[in-house]
Each structure stands twice: as C-alpha cells, then as structure tokens.
Write a structure and sequence with these properties.
The chain is of the alpha/beta class and 400 residues long. The protein has two domains: 253 residues, Type I PLP-dependent aspartate aminotransferase-like (Major domain) (Aspartate Aminotransferase, domain 2, 3-Layer(aba) Sandwich), CATH 3.40.640; 132 residues, Aspartate Aminotransferase, domain 1 (Alpha-Beta Complex). It has 16 helices and 14 strands. Strands 3-9-8-7-6-4-5 form a seven-stranded mixed sheet, with helices on both faces. It has a five-stranded mixed sheet with strand order 10-11-14-13-12. Strands 1-2 form a two-stranded antiparallel ribbon. The termini are far apart. The structure holds pyridoxal-5'-phosphate. The site of pyridoxal-5'-phosphate has 17 residues, from helix 4, helix 5 and helix 9. GO terms for molecular function: carbon-sulfur lyase activity; pyridoxal phosphate binding; transferase activity, transferring alkyl or aryl (other than methyl) groups. This is O-succinylhomoserine sulfhydrylase. Its EC number is 2.5.1.-. It catalyses: O-succinyl-L-homoserine + hydrogen sulfide = L-homocysteine + succinate.
Length: 400
C-alpha cells in the first residue's frame, strides 16, 4: 500500500517542515525522495474497477490531464504551505492566472484589477477578456476609494498582486478583500513576489491565490509551472472542470522538479532576502542611485503596511540609476556577476530594465503613471555572497 505523510497538525508545523514533508505519498517501495510518475494514464485490474474509477466511487487517477500522483504531491504541499483547502497545478504561472479567471467568468461579468500587474496578466484582463464580453476596470491599487468606486453590481472578481512588479508597491490585501466581499466579489491574489513564505493572502481575506512556480518555487531557472489555491468548493464548482476540459496541465516531471524546489525554498528565500536588504541599503548610499524601493526600508512609501502584511521585505530591489535609459544601460552592461534577464526568483541575481523589456509595449505616459522611469531597474537577488553582489554594483555604477 502507498503511505502518506500525515502532518501531526499542519497548523502547528512550521513551513520549513511542510516544505520538506508536506504532501509526500510513498509508493510500496518506501522511497525517500518523492517518486516521479511519468505516465499519461493508468491501468485497471478489471473492467469493473475501471468503471468504479470513472464513476468516482474508487478514488484514484484516470488520466494525467486530470491528475497525476507526482503532481498531486506538489499540489498538496502547496495547499499545506498556504493554508488552502485545495490546490491545482498548471503548466505555467499564466495558465494558473488564466484558469483562475476564466473558470468562473462569463459574458456580462466585470473585473476590477490593480493597474500594476505582471504584463501578461494585463493582456488577459485588457485584451482577451473584453473579446468575450467581460469588462475590466484598472485602478491604482493603493487607492482604496478607487477600488470601491470601480465596483459594479456585476463585478465578480477583484485581482491584484502585491508587492507589484516592478515598482514594489504594496497593496492593502485585507482592505481590498473587505471591499470585494462587500460587493459579493472574490479576491484573487497573485502572490509571486512575496512567495508563499512572506505573505499569507488567505489570512488577509483572499479567496484564491495564484503563483508562477517558475519563480522562487523552482528558483533554479529550470522549468515553468503554476498553482491555483482556493477552497474545495471553488475547485468543485469552477476550477476542476475548466482544467480537466481545457488541459493547461503541468508535466509530472515539472511538478517533481518543483516539489524538490520547495524543499529548499525556505533557505533560498531567507538568503536572497537578507542579501536584498543589504543591497538596498548599499544602493541607497550610492550618489548615482536616485531612488531605492525596498518594502522593508523605512523610506518605502508603504513601509508600515508592508510590515503589517508581510513577514519579510522579499528578494527584489528596484532602483533608479541616474542618467535615464543611457545610465541604466551603462550600469547593466558593466555588471560582471549579476546577469541581464527578464526573469526573477532565480538562484542567480538577475537585472531587468522594465522600460525596454517587460513594460516596453506601454506608452511613456502609461509607464510614468506606473512609476516606471527610463532609469528604473529591477534586481532579483540570488544566492551569491552578498559582498560579491555589492562589489559588482559599486564597480558597475562607476560606468554611469
Ligand atoms: C512570472 C509571473 C507570472 C507568470 O508566470 P509564468 O510562469 O511565466 O507563466 C505571473 N505573475 C507574476 C507576478 C509573475 O512574476
């Protein structure tokens, strides 16, 4: 018989313990490391057993588009970590975002979302949903009155990410959840930047939480993945059927990589976060750096809110290099350890220039509205020694 890890009481276990053991179901071989079930389907001892499986009378797997034992371990570990009743993994973070929205929306519905969002999330909200008769209103997420004013009787979903990409703005999740619930709408939180360790959106009132597991959860630049976390009711009423019938399924191989990634998530986030805080302070002391944004620094516009709803400032630091685009490019090109990339949440420190990459499609006015100036760069801090990162930044700033 397969044996399952049963936590004594998940609410009393620390996240570090759940990251290692949560969701583990061992095969009869009793393997130490989670088994990788790289299979499309399953076989049955007889036709009656197959019928029972299809009727749902016998719990078990039918086809890996609907569920797979390795994927199920990853989902359960994520659910325990976030304090959710249920989780469903997807092929990418965007598949998770898309599924969390489309599984419940229909023509005539309305969505309110914060303007500062990961680029592809804005595509879905602004370009795709309206094609199917779903209207979206984008608001300044830090302005609670704007959320209230945007809500309509047909508003079904409020959507936000916090801290936001790339300006690390903090949105008051609890306050927005209260406004959403007063309207009878659900709040979906994209919790990628905070990671499952530094912010608990369900405790703040979120109804659905989504992740790109591509980021810190893998954290080693290998594979894409996503997760939707919610109540069991939401899965039964909306998500399960959507995923089953439309098929944005994660490969069991990728789910296995992500399971192994979770085991070291705590150590990696702790290290990267501590280096990020060090780098933020070092950057603030540099005359060629015009502005530093780090949620736990006292000069962050929402430092108090950040400390209220997060347990750490995170692994990203955003700053403005003097000299606009030219200054930012000179700085980026002079870096020797930190690499230029559009990705984040990796063991390697990565620098992004949003104005020419992730936010390049927006007009200069729209970028200004989002606080993305031409000198602004986003640094995703990795696992290198912090002294080497500080030296790299100090020497590269000389080129500005
Ligand atoms: C990366 C990212 C996504 C999309 O995830 P993919 O795995 O790349 O599809 C969504 N939201 C945020 C905040 C992200 O950083």
């Amino acid at each position: 018989m397969a044996s399952k890890f049963v936590p004594p009481d998940p609410s009393t276990l620390h996240p570090e313990t759940l990251l290692v053991h949560g969701g583990t179901t061992r095969s009869p071989y009793g393997e130490t490391s989670e088994a990788l079930y790289l299979t499309q389907g399953f076989v049955y001892d007889n036709a009656e057993a197959c019928e029972a499986r299809f009727k749902g009378e016998d719990p078990g797997f039918v086809y890996s588009r609907y569920g797979n034992p390795t994927t199920a371990m990853f989902e359960e570990r994520m659910a325990l970590l976030d304090g959710a009743e249920a989780a469903r993994a997807t092929a990418s973070g965007m598949a998770a975002v898309n599924a969390s929205l489309l599984c419940q929306l229909k023509a005539g519905d309305h969505v309110v979302a914060a303007r500062a969002l990961f680029g592809s999330c804005r595509w879905i909200l602004e370009d795709f949903l309206p094609r199917y008769g779903v209207e979206t209103t984008l608001v300044n997420g830090t302005d609670l009155d704007a959320w209230k004013a945007a809500a309509r009787p047909n508003t079904k979903i409020f959507f936000l990410e916090s801290p936001t990409n790339p300006t690390l703005e903090i949105i008051d999740v609890k306050a927005v959840a209260d406004i959403a619930h007063a309207q009878g709408a659900l709040l979906i939180v994209d919790n990628v930047f905070a990671t499952p360790l530094l912010q608990k959106p369900f405790e703040l009132g979120a109804d659905v939480v989504v992740y790109s597991a591509t980021k810190h959860i893998d954290g080693q630049g290998r594979c894409l993945g996503g997760v939707v976390l919610s109540s069991q009711q939401f899965v039964t009423d909306h998500l399960q059927t959507f995923l089953r019938q439309t098929g944005p399924s994660i490969s069991p191989f990728n789910a296995w990589v992500l399971l192994k990634g979770l085991e070291t998530l705590g150590l990696r986030v702790e290290r990267a976060q501590s280096s990020a805080a060090t780098l933020a302070d070092a950057l603030a002391a540099e005359p060629k750096v015009e502005k530093v944004l780090y949620p736990f620094r006292a000069d962050h516009p929402q430092a108090a809110l950040a400390r209220r709803q997060m347990t750490g400032g995170g692994t990203l630091v955003t700053f403005v290099v003097g000299g606009g685009k030219e200054g930012a490019f000179r700085f980026a090109n002079a870096l020797k350890v930190i690499r230029i990339s559009n990705n984040l949440g990796d063991s390697k420190s990565l620098l992004t220039h949003p104005a020419t990459t992730t936010h390049q499609r927006f007009t200069p006015e729209a970028r200004a509205e989002m606080g993305i100036s031409d000198g602004l760069v986003r640094l995703s801090v990795g696992l290198e020694h912090p002294d080497d990162l500080v030296s790299d930044i100090v020497q590269a700033l000389k080129a500005v």
